[in-house]
Design goal:
Layout: H1 3-14, H2 18-33, H3 38-45, H4 67-78, H5 82-99, H6 102-110, H7 131-142, H8 146-162, H9 166-175, H10 178-190, H11 201-212, H12 216-234, H13 236-243
Length: 260
Amino acid sequence: MDHEEFFTLVGTAAGIDRAEAEQATRATLQTLAQRLTRGEALDLVSELPPEIGPYLHTEGHPDPFDVEEFIRRVAEREGVDEETAERHAAVVLATLRRAVSPKAYHDLTSLLPRSFATVLPAGPWVEIMPAQEFVRRVAARADVDQEEARRTTEVVLELLAEHIAAGQVDDLTELVDQPLREPLRRGKERNESGKARAMPLDEFLDAVAERLGIDFVEARGRARAVFPTLREAVGDKEFTDTTSQLPPGYSALWFDPVPV
């Protein structure tokens, strides 16, 4: 990933222009650097574009501030309010996760306290929803038994993975419990191009109905149970990254979900 791609990803996700994306990136990474030793910062710099790496320059004396102070400092550097700074920082850190290796990102998040979960898309200490709980929520929303909820979950996740980019499937796979990873991997393997493939909502639901042996109306209800549960499992940011690759109309599957 070069620096222009980095800024483009930040700008697109945050809804800001290129100059603002660069400023948000600089403010976030300069503040992050204040929490790192020189060696920790250099590990990240070595994997970043040369235009971005200098933002992580540090004197090597980490300041163990909490996430509230992190956001306050980002806001001050960026010249925005704290709510905006928190949103921009989350986008920058999500983009950082894509720009560096899983090991480098894991090492970084290992250094930060649990409170940073509000601005980090994932970390080694972020709780993963157990597959059993995921299935329980699907069963409650769809009003089916546990076995049907399990089958429904697997079918919908596999179909989803067939129609989004391979890299996004990988991101989802990291954030769900082990039993839910296999249908995502199967779907990824079916997508030979590795790119997002548009599939109209009606065709998606027809495929769900066919694989489960149910009618279209029931398939729609089942899908409306899985998507909001997936959102609860992976968080708003990752869910938005995933569903932004789907054609218009799919939002009907997670709008106003049944409470559990």
